[in-house]
Amino acid sequence: MTLHTDPQTDSGTGNGRAVGTTTGPRRREVIHVPAGEGPSVWLSGDVYTVKLSHEESDGVLTLMEASVPPGGGPPLHIHADADEAFYLLSGELEISAHGRAYAVRPGDFVFIPRGTAHRFRNNGVHTARQLLLFSPSGVDRFFLEAGQEAEPGTPPPPPEAEDLAQVASIGERYHLFQASEEQ
Do 86 and 173 meet the contact criterion of CB atoms below 8 Å apart? Predict the structure, then answer.
């Protein structure tokens, strides 16, 4: 195995992703993303950071970190072709699906099958941090297209109605749909 810095993500800045390659029928890479790194966007008042992208995983999965301020979280939505898993690192969230609300604390895990209307909301007083895993991958492309590039150390702006309509339109291209309470 050869360890090197991926030239596509590191232009000599030293902050690229360290990868190790192996040979075989399918090229696989070892990827290390240091804390606080990865493409980050503001979306719906939250911060989303891509830790493992569609391209990096050969379409197998996407891993993201989300920082959700008090009162934050997306509207009710459906991922038509991806399962989603949540692992809460800090803070507290309420994750709702199938008419049931789950009080989620640090260390808790929640799995949402594809096609299930769900949402999460931070009802606490501190920012919640969670890992989001999507399988198969691809939803990272939605976040990077629909979101606004995050400025480190700056809180995300609150969502505005016209932004939400544009986000919904972009979401449809990635099989992510807003849902109504009846679904």
Answer: no
Spatial neighbors of 74 by CB under 8 A, at least 6 apart, are 43, 44, 46, 119, 120
Per-position DSSP letters for 28-52, written without gaps between them: -EEEE--TT-S-EEEETTEEEEEEE
Q: What is the pLDDT of residue 166?
A: 84
Question: With contact defined as beta carbons under 8 Å apart, do 73 and 120 qualify?
Answer: yes
Residues 11-63 have pLDDT tens digits of 343 445 555 444 444 557 799 999 999 999 999 899 999 999 999 999 999 99
58 in any annotated domain: yes
C-beta neighbour count of 44 within 10 angstroms = 18
Q: What is the pLDDT of residue 163?
A: 75
DSSP 16: S
104 to each of 71, 111, 152, how far by Cα in Å? 15, 12, 27
Please say whether the beta carbons of 104 and 86 come within 8 A.
yes
Do strands 40-43 and 93-97 pair parallel, antiparallel, or not at all (unpaired)? unpaired
Q: How many domains does the chain have?
A: 1
In a domain, 46, yes or no: yes
